[in-house]
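F.,

This is the one I mentioned.
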């Protein structure tokens, strides 16, 4: 059989109510549940581990860019001998050696 006409409007009202809950309140509620749970220590350890890995990766990228800076500068100047590190000899990666 068919559903009564009043039911679809009640579904729409329920959808509007659930859509009106803000993202911030959901995050706050989820954080409160985790903070009260026994998994709090594990969650904090995982969050700290992720932060440490991201910070270490960013630091290593900065060091790698500083280490490669002379090579990039030589490419910008189109200075082939100083980019190869040898004095005067042509590098073997040139297409017409």
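My design for it:
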């Amino acid at each position: 059989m068919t559903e009564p006409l009043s039911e679809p409007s009640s579904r729409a009202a329920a959808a509007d109510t659930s859509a009106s809950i803000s993202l911030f309140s959901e995050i706050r509620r989820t954080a409160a549940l985790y903070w009260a749970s026994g998994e709090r220590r594990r969650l904090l350890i995982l969050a700290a581990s992720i932060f440490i890995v991201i910070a270490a990766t960013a630091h290593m990228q900065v060091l790698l860019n500083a280490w490669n800076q002379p090579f990039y500068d030589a490419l910008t100047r189109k200075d082939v001998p100083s980019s190869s590190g040898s004095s005067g000899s042509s590098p073997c990666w040139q297409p017409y050696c």
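The two ends are 84 Å apart (CA to CA).

Talk soon.
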